[in-house]
Amino acid sequence: MKHTDYSIRAYLSPDAQILFDDIVTQKVLGASAHIKMISQMIKDICFTARSQNESPDLLNAKIHQLSEFFIKNRGEASQAITNAIMLMTRGCNDQVNRGIDEYITYLLKQIEEFESRNRHNLELINQFALRVLSKMNAILLFDYSSTVAKMIDTYDYPLVIFIPESRALDGGKHYMFHAHKAHHKIHFIPDVAIYHYLKQCDGVFIGSETHYPDGRVFNTVGTEMVAFISHQFGIPFYVLTSLIKTDARSIHGYSKEPLIMNLRDRILPDIDNQIKEQIDFSCPEVVEISSEYITAFITEVGIIPPSAMFQLSLNYINEIGGISNNV
After folding, report:
1. Beta partners for 303?
2. Is the dihedral of CA 43, 44, 47, 52 positive or negative?
3. What is the tens place of the pLDDT at every residue in 292-303?
4. Which residues does 88 contact at the CB level (< 8 Å), separation at least 6?
5. Structural domain containing residue 172
6. Which of 113, 70, 73, 69 is nearest to 90 (CA)?
7. What sign has the CA pseudo-torsion 267, 177, 242, 17?
8. Same domain membership, residue 59 and residue 44
9. Could you report the per-residue pLDDT of 194-226, keeping only the tens digit for each?
10. Mean pLDDT of the residues in the chain
11. Is there a single domain that holds both residue 115 and residue 134?
12. CA–CA distances in Å: residue 162 to residues 79, 92, 103, 311
């Protein structure tokens, strides 16, 4: 369920409010980008608290409120958001009895260590992805991922890139700017043309919102269609993802609740509201992609087949504190 209490926004500076709005309105897409923006908002709250000499208790409450907002609004779709916030703020409750400067110093160090590890992991993912990409001439990218965008940004040879519109979130057009800047040949297509053009591709690359240890992936609606068609044609289907996107709760029986969005203003913005009120525009936001359709996960530890993700995922979750902290 979406968290509709926006009161935390008032504690942010004007610049940080823009970051807040860009996530909420989906102007900026991609879990990795959102994690970076959330860390900037946490820092912003800290700097304001220091300038106003707030108590550690009050600052801690604001940090928790911001964290809860984004865990409810983005974490339900992307476990990476939840895991990242937990890692950045871990141990903060133990700092409330110290001075405001000590609290902020501790929190900023936590964030700095997390960001350093995260940058390193994303760089490793990119290196592995470029090795896979080196064997291809034409690829299809579905729905924007900042991790996938970095791959095409840094690939030195011209590719033919098919980019479906990914209409549900308008996630295709963001790739066009990256591909154009990197001098790739772009073919932008409507989602209904995926079947036709996929046969010309050597591979498909997506990011992910979340993955389960058993190799299932959750991503924007439409991804399951691309995965199924790729499987039918025998076209490799790769998922670029950091292990921070692991949701291990599934081994305790947890199952993701459907996230439903209303597309009335995106699909038919010019139709009279009285007519639209009589039409159902509901659509799932995030869908499951079966592991049987996935060739490999490209992670910070290597190019991993779905069958090998289980132990790797559990090792990672234990490393960051266990499944009890992953809920």
Report:
1. 298
2. negative
3. 999 999 999 999
4. 39, 42, 107, 110, 111, 114
5. 122-326
6. 113
7. negative
8. yes
9. 999 999 999 999 999 889 999 999 999 999 999
10. 91
11. no
12. 28, 45, 48, 34
